[in-house]
Amino acid sequence: MSGELILPKDTEVSRPEFILLDASAGTGKTHALTLRFAQFLLSDKIRNNQLNQILAITFTHNAANEMKDRIIGWLKATHFGQDTARLKDIKELVSLPEEAFPGRAEEKLQYLFDHYSDFQVTTIDSFMTDVFKASAIEMGFSPDFSITLNTSPVINYAFYRYLRNITAEAEDGKLLLRITDSLKEMKGSDKAFLWNPADEILETFTQFYRKLEALYRQPEIKRPEEFELELKKAESNWSDSLQKLRQLLINTPLERANRSAIWRRLDANNISDWFDCSFKTDPVKQPKLSEPPELLRLYEETIKYLDDFKEKLKKYKRLYAASYFQPHLQVYNRLLEQLDFIKKENGLIFLDDVNRHLAAYLHTGVVPDIYLCLGGQIYHFLIDEFQDTSPIQWKNLVPLIDNALSQGGSLFIVGDTKQAIYGFREADYQIMVGLKKGDEKFYPVNVCVKPLATNRRSRRAILDFVSSIFPRGIRELGVGQDTTKKAEKIEAWKEAARSSGLDDFECQGVDDKTQSSSEIFPGYVEMEFFQPPRKSKNKDEQDKDSKNGEDFSAGTETEEEIEQEDSALKKRVQELIPELLNRGYDFSDITILAYKNETVARAASWLNEKEIPFVTFSALDIRQRPLIKEILALLQFLDFPLDNLNFSTFLLGNLFQNKLRTDGHSQPERGELAEFILETRLRGVKKDYPLYTYFKQKYQDLWESYFESLYRTVGYLPLYDLVSEIYRTFSVFNPDLTGDEQSALIKLLEVIKKFEGEGGSNLRDFIRFSGEETEDNSVWTVDVPESIKAVRIMTIHKAKGLESPVVILLLYTEQPPSIPFFLKEEDSGEGPARVKVLKLSKDMTADDEELHSIYEETSSKELANRLNTFYVALTRAREELYILGQRGQKRGFPFDFLEALGFPLEKKFQSAEEKPARKSRPGAGGAPGRIAIPNPPLNFVGATQDRFRLVKNLPHYRQERRGELIHAILEKVDFLEEDIEEQLEKITCDQAFRKYQPEEKEEAIKSLLEFLKRPEVAEFFRQRPGRKVKTEAEMVNKSGELYRTDRLLLDPDVISIIDFKTGQFSGETVKKSHAQQVKNYKAMLEEIYPNRKVSGWLLYIDSGELEEVL
Predict the structure, then answer these.
(1) Model pTM?
(2) With bands split at pLDDT 50, 70 and 90, how would you rate the model's confidence at 59?
(3) Please, which pLDDT band fits residue 830 given cuts at 50, 70 and 90?
(4) In terms of DSSP bridges, do strands 590-594 and 804-812 run parallel, antiparallel, or are they unpaired?
(5) Which residues of 529-567 are buried (b: 16+ CB within 10 A; e: fewer)?
(6) Which of 798, 876, 878, 1110 could connect to 794 by a Cys-Cys bridge, CB 3.0–4.6 Å?
(7) Peptide bond into 668 cis (omega under 30)
(8) 3-state secondary structure of 879
(9) Can you tell me the distance from the alpha carbon of 53 to that of 57, in angstroms, rounded to the nearest whole number?
(10) CA dist., res. 1082 & res. 1094, Å (int)
(11) Who's near 644: CB < 8 A, 6+ residues apart?
């Protein structure tokens, strides 16, 4: 790709400059962005182009890592000069003498590695989180908070804690009963009884939180009683109007229009029966001019009554739509209060809250200091996958970008609205559409939109096939066809495609050649759908279907039925992969894509049957690797030696068995150990001793060689050191013992490093953490290397940004997603966006233009998301694309869509009669099912790099780190010794404090000396008769929640709770939350020690304040 076709030469870069690359799939969006980053670093013509003055933003950690690799790759190519294509692109864009390029690239590479924390390529969530952390104190937050991605447990706890405190007679209890009734109504009488509505209510609350609170939206909330009065009045008015209209129509001499839906409902007195009534056809026909004038007057009077009836029905429907969720919103408000209290109580902030808090603070008109700092440092913004930006994220970025542009900086955006598939996360591609049109502008620069239209990924046959669907097929859909029955559906598809640009774009291919052949490889596409056997139905089922106009009876399919329906599709997939291997492909060249995780699991089982190696998703969860499972089992045993199951798991695992063989131990073999374990469990002894004691007696030499040291040091070694000792003891980096599992082993150490860096040190807490699901998938995952010889299976969403030589796309009928509620934006001016939460359906909105517009807009976004997802799936293949589908008895998306485009579903589609020849690539592959990493370095885990050196130097970062250090020192102090300074220095010499710099420890000791020498403080550290001290004492309340106190003094007559705080606190809200925390501790201890006085104290180390909590 030539740089001059896309990017301006460094001498032509404007000041300021705003470029938007509008790119299709496979055209090199990320290539262009990383090339621009490298261009800016290498050039001496571009102002403010130091490493820390350029910020690149993307939306996933994997994408950020890939961008870093590519940027470094550009610099390496420039230095070594071996990659002529890359070097040519760089030289076209950077004005340097020919001989200066290697030296300049070497200089920039050296600087980058020496100042890696200045290499700002990050996700938008990570960037905004750092901004928030740096502004937390300024915005009124305590500095000791932690940001969590895993919000579900906290929300669940808040909900059930709320439920425990209400009764059926209370107002909230009545609200919940109303919500339960509405849930029954929504599910219908033919559904199963709603035994536990709590889960349904919790799901609605969670959806409210993600659509409202997290996105800085404020719903309109009224008391349900207010709506009830309005609804009753509106229904009464409607009922009166119905009686008049009914009387008029029954006795009318006018000719009936029998096609009118009004006649079929005229006897219905329930207003809900009229919600889906179509008023397209009037109930009576207009008299002819030749008929008596009285009939014309009567017709006009009838229409007048009909209009009045429709208006009153419309008014009621609007009230009903706005009132339906009011009980839910009342409860939602109470739950928000409970959730906010729990977050403050535990020092938690959700990642979703970060953008909301920043937006709220910016709305006050006060610009946080961090914005001013960043505004003076970052001059060049590069944003990848811009179509995935949410409105609130963009709103928080705009002030920084505006400032950069005003100082002669630049904004470089790349994106593709056709690949916008994250609408469920509130990403809005219309932001990009608005920028392209110039609806949103930055002063003093106009946007320069540049299209990328040359696809460098897919071969000609694939491009032609995709083009027959997008854009040509969707653009010509319905032209010259008999589409009367499908007109509404076709128009919806076309409108959705129009909104994201799927019907209007250019994408041309380039002829490419295989590495081992001089002939052009054209690519290949095949599409085949399988029809399941029709189910035999009894007469009742047939009658039900005929009434509903459906082709099959609804019901839950059994696993056997699914297996039977899938048999043909399964057989084709199982046969196709060996065919591809015989034609020169490797397992690693093949990717299977599906819409849903259930289909991914199904496809995995098909491959497993034929012993075809596979990996699911584009990243591997290391906890699923057998080796990591064995190490975690050993850790669980060390934490709790009575855990016979986990000790047995490790003894029988491959790691221990392979180590025994390598070290020359002839016994015990796995079978003998299994017999030994079974025998010890079956012994009929009175006292059941743990398994390890029997093992220690029978295999004393093995116990002493492999377990004794770990068993004795588990309570003393830091977690990272303990796992490192396990690695050393069992030689885990010996490939003869563990195969190519280095990536997973290193990732485990990285997870532990991060866990300890965030304040965790307890082995039991880590074990609990390892068993929890996290919303940040990157915590436990490693990327699947290209060299792994296995078929990849993943959802289409996981495949975004990836490509593969061969793609097998599995299709099933996709039901449209259920939209639980609709939002109507109100003009709110400043502050959070005001919205109405509405209950809508298609039929209900048919005769109301305003409600219909809201319904259609939301539905069209969902449909655009489905079409975009289909486009993404079709554009992942480089050489061959296979679309294999299982049609249902009832046609739905995407089968009805493809059929409307002119593809016969019963006939197999092939882009060529014969598949083109294809030779294998040299050096592809690796051992099946293993994770390979070349030449692992001895120092396999270095210090974690900070994303922003700027953040390290900000007050909040330093304050948080200082607070952690001071708390860690005080944890080691039971009583004060005569020489307090020497005592503190001894404590900080421990290896647990090695992560802190000498100057940090010196400053902390100085602050603590001043604090501890005060008589009123020293009293809490003085030895007394009968006094016992517990630091970081754990307590559990009635609900099973775990709490830790900083210091607990157990005197014979009184229990004293001491909670230390570092930093300066002036806000009453923050201090109240501190006091509440101590009150919670007091309440628990008063139950544990009912006969002793319990006192609570807050000790503010920096201000010197001592406050008793009463």
Answers:
(1) 0.73
(2) confident
(3) low
(4) parallel
(5) bbebeeeeeeeeeeeebeeeeeeeeeeeeeeeeeeebbe
(6) 798
(7) yes
(8) strand
(9) 13
(10) 6
(11) 677, 681, 690, 691
